[in-house]
Amino acid sequence: MTDTPRLSSHGAPGTTGFSQEPAIRVMNLTKEYPGGIRALEGISFDVPKGELTSVIGPSGCGKTTSLKIIAGLVEATSGEVVVNGTQVRGPGPERAFVFQEFALMPWATVLRNVAFGLELRGFGRKERESIAHEYIAKMNLTGFEDAYPHQLSGGMRQRVGLARAMAVDADILLMDEPFASVDEQIRRKFQEDLLRLLSEEKKSVLFVTHSIEEAVYVSDQIVILTRGPAQVSNVVRPGIDRTGDPQNIRRSSAYLDCVESIWVELRNYLEE
Amino acid sequence: MTLRGFRIPMVFSLVVWCAIWEIIGRLNLISLIPPFTDVVEALFEVIPSTDFIDATMITFQAFAIGMGLALVVGISVGILMGRIPAVGNLMGMWVNIFESSPLTAIVPALMAILGFGLPTMIVTVFLFSVWVIALDTQVGVERVNPSLIEMGRSFGASNRALFSKIVFFAALPELLAGIRLGLIRGLKGVIIGQLLIAVIGMGYLFELYSRNFLMPEFWALLIILFGFAYIASEAVAYFERKVAFYATSR
Amino acid sequence: MAVRTQSQHGRIRTSSWLLRGASILLVFGLWEWAGTIPVSIAFPRFTDTMSAFVEMLADGTFASAYAETIGPLLVGILLTAVGGLVAGLVMGLSPRAEWLGLPLIIVLQASPSAAIVPLITFLYGIGFAAKVFAVVLLSAPVIVLNSYRGITNTPKSLLEMSDAFLAKRWQRIWKIVLPAGSGLIFAGLRLGLAQGFTGAVLAELLITPTGVGDLITFYRAGADYPYMFAAIFSIILFASVSLTLLQRLEQRIFRPEMRPV
Ligand SMILES: Nc1ncnc2c1ncn2[C@@H]1O[C@H](COP(=O)(O)OP(=O)(O)OP(=O)(O)O)[C@@H](O)[C@H]1O
Ligand SMILES: [Mg+2]
Fold it and tell me: What is the Cα C42 distance to its own chain's centre?
């Protein structure tokens, strides 16, 4: 990664050595919004360290809600979230969030938006901007440093949000449908980019998506949620070998079978 | 705010302010501020007096005529500015300038041209309120989602139907905001006009009360005006809230 | 009202200078024509008004008059801007303050409080302080109300974002809440400036015969209508120039993306 020392990864002391400990452990989360809307009905799963776990489920089932609880942005009604061995009581520097609706500051340039997490942590201008430049380049946004969000396409805005989350160098990335607003061709390219970045940077990722194909293609583990209020329907490990050519992977029977079985499972929740 | 689990509606804080007023009045801190209860008492003397009834009649007349004109002109000009770019470009600058300039300065000129009577007051009300109505109407019309209009056309709506069924309703949130602000400004205008003319209506009464140092009566009159302004603007705000749900999701 | 500022920015960018020039010519032409008829003996021609304007500019009439008006206006507006912003912040961040303050502010901004101006003499005489009070009286409600609205209008997603990236309380206010609300806050300042101007002129017309307000009174009494109109013209010109400057300032500090290119 970068050679600059940075704030990151405050695992509980003495616990970081055990690689079998999950990055995130979600235990029996329930959430009831004011007004009596139940969004989560006791969900539990682990996100192993260094892996990509995706969450998939019918629209409105509570995916964003569970991600925000893990991020410490929303309080759970009951249950708990343990990150690197410590119980979550609010947002922390070891987690970074990519928002479904981007959440970019319309008055700030791409450069400032990307550097914003570092700005809040008190990094000097030079330092944070050089880090931001690095991720702007990795996200293929070079040349747009001085543009404002309203001048960007949806896909570009989403990449600014991704770069901002990457720039704070948290070891856990929480991503809410990061590729929802890009078309299919670009989406595939992003998936490749994401996989490459993850293998370079060794992060643990929790990734919400609507797309079964995407989930199967990028994930080490998939958490399937039921219709809201969400429960965990199943956790599968696609076990796809990603060493070859992307085109061949998408044609492999392991990949296709996995997509098919998840589709069959999710279809139950549509038909009721 | 809640007290022992009860939610107290916000307007009730006005009661707190009236109590503070009463205390300041009782302590005799400022000679100009009599206790609130004295003001309420004076209210019952002021309202039935012929002076007040006459002043109310002429003020209301000026206000109603001026507002009526401002509504008709403001809304039509606003629609034209919103629908026809050339008109918007031609008039936008002036509407913007007059919408936020101290029009009080114009009143003496009106007095010189139109005299000290009803016409000056009517024109004052009109000039105070017409610009903001035109401006907000324009914004509302400009903000109508083009796909809504295309939808209407694709279903074969005539121009007239397009306007009365789509543009009007889509622009309604801004239109109502403009009308509310116009009402508020019109009322301010009629009072400022009368204060400057000083021989008719409420302006005359204020002058009379303050010259004779009748403070309870002065504040009673002011409370009546405040109450009227508040009720009038809340009445429009009520309709605004009814359409607010789609103001953000067009 | 945020509505309006937004589209104003857009309009300024798109409207061509040509149309603007035509529009100015048209209005001044109409004025000249109406003065030539004349529609009223008290309605001077545009050209006469302009020569009076230039004369008053050259002989220092305006300079000395504005020297007396701008001081109290500036002091009053600065006081209200700072106080209004703080009051708006407190009301936006504390539910108790909101409960207590908001209804009062709503009533005050809807009301013709100009009627109180004549009373000011009893308290502050006819000097500097009286004008400052008139400025504050008229400008405060709209400034407080708009600051409050600006501060409570921050998009929830940006607040969540700042939480997720560990913003401290002051960072959240300074870097998110204020820029997000700056449109409404500055719209309030603009309206407040216009109102404050009204207050100053009203005080000068009604209670303290000084400054530009007094120029109007003076020339009206002498039936020197071109001079009276020149004074009124100067007020409107001065107000719109200062409002434009204020808008530039806003874009400079908080909303660079709205600066016309
Ligand atoms: N702030 C809130 N207040 C009340 N109810 C909410 C709130 N946020 C979400 N909900 C409700 O909780 C449920 C789950 O919402 P959530 O946004 O987590 O779903 P989701 O799975 O992310 O949906 P999508 O796939 O459309 O993004 C929905 O029924 C929604 O209406
Ligand atoms: Mg969601």
Answer: 28
* A103: contact with C, CB 8 A cutoff: yes
Q: For residues C105 and C101, give the distance between their C-alpha atoms in angstroms, rounded to a whole number.
A: 6
Residues with beta carbon inside 6 Å of ligand 1? A 33, 37, 39, 59-65, 228
**Domain spans in chain C, listed from the N-terminal domain onward:** 1-43, 44-258
- Overall domain count for chain A: 1
Q: Could you tell me how many CB contacts below 8 A there are between chain B and chain C? A: 173
C-alpha torsion A190→A192→A194→A199, nearest 10: -170
Q: How many domains does chain B have?
A: 2
Give me the interface pTM, i.e. the ipTM: 0.87
C69 lies within 8 A of chain A by CB: no
Could you tell me if B24 and B73 lie in one domain?
no
Is B161 found in the same domain as B65? yes
The pTM score is: 0.83
d(C-alpha C22, C-alpha C159), whole Å: 46
Domain span holding position B131? 47-249
What 3-state class would DSSP assign to B171?
Answer: helix
What is the rounded distance in angstroms from the CA atom of residue A96 to the CA atom of residue A70?
Answer: 11
Cα gap B171→A219, rounded to integer Å: 47
Q: Which residues 6+ apart lie within 8 Å of C150 measured at CB? A: C2, C88, C92, C180, C181, C182, C183, C184, C185, C188
Whose C-alpha lies nearest to ligand 1, atom 3? A33
Cα B79 to ligand 2 centroid, rounded to whole Å? 39
Please give the structure tokens belonging to residue B108. Answer: 């003496």
Q: What is the pLDDT of residues C151-183, one digit of tens each?
A: 998 899 999 999 999 999 999 999 999 889 888
What fold characterizes domain C44-258? MetI-like fold (1.10.3720)
